[in-house]
């Protein structure tokens, strides 16, 4: 087969595949040909790796200023109804961005794309009951202990347990817990769905670990996720790959003291949309997310116990009112859709984090997920 991918200048740091360059090139060319994008991608071999990137001639039109939020519209992709189009959007944003995604082989790159597809699909189906303090899970799949957190009941599938906790279609009930924890469940579900086909032994190890103690917060990030971008080298505000987990900071010092309103954890779904775990089917644009977070400061009240809380019945109408005023939208977005201040600083920064997160490698022989040890006082 003759491949039409080109060599030469590209607009991106590229996706780099290490290992046998000839075999890697052939596998990727076959994949790109199936997606219909082989003629748009440059390639280059050096130092035992093959690099793939979007050709320069398409960069400015497709992803101006590394802003990926309009790519789906530009390429007329139907990512809601066509899984192959979602795969196309993921692949193009990876090869066209400012960050170099490095994989030990082609299989890991393709697995990473499949996991991102899983994340987007799971995030679209996720909906939580809104409550800042209650913690609930389906009791026929989960148990709770203060020392171990929520654990999966033995004999119950981890995949089923995660779906039942986050996707009301499976239970006809909404469960209440934080968007941060929900984002962990969506990531873990997407990883587990891939491992069911790619590495069942690793999935079994994760399953058994989740039956004994929850992996959450810092240990979850360290075990399952990579982070790219930093405050010293921030990603462009508009650059996201579908499946990325992001944190939008609340830049208001007063309302950010309300539990649950320090910021908002979301996934980028592609097509310029971000997940909304509270109202399924009403995903956020960057504009609507900026305006909602902006109005948290105008809905901060004290309850009868003297505790700060956000009155959501105030936020919603203020958000809708602002969205109907293009001048107000422009003013607020210009302040909010900029890089956030460092932790603990509330000055001129906005909601945009410098980094994004995505799952680690999962294939046999190259997976790099090391499960944390159980505490010594827990049964092994």
Q: Return the average pLDDT rounded to an integer.
A: 93
Distance between the termini: 53 Å
Q: Give, in spatial order, the strands making up the sheet with the most strands.
A: 2-3-1-4
Q: Give me the Rg, rounded.
A: 21 Å
Query: Could you describe the largest sheet, including whether it forms a barrel?
Result: 4 strands, mixed
The portion of residues forming beta strands comes to: 5-15%
The chain-level structural class is: alpha+beta
- Secondary structure: helix percent: 25-40%
* Poorly predicted ranges: 1-8
How many separate helices?
Answer: 12
Element string (H = helix, E = strand):
EHEEHHHEHEEHHHHEEEEHEEHHE
- Judging from the principal axes of the Cα atoms, what is the shape? globular
Number of domains: 3
Counting DSSP E segments of at least 2 residues, the number of strands comes to: 13
Descriptive overview:
By secondary structure, this protein is α+β, with helices and mostly antiparallel strands. The protein has three domains: 15-97, no CATH class; 105-229, no CATH class; 234-354, no CATH class. 37% of the residues lie in helices and 15% in strands. It has twelve helices and 13 strands. The strands form five sheets. The chain has a four-stranded mixed sheet. α5 (106-125) packs across α7, α7 runs antiparallel to α8 and α10 (286-295) packs across α11.
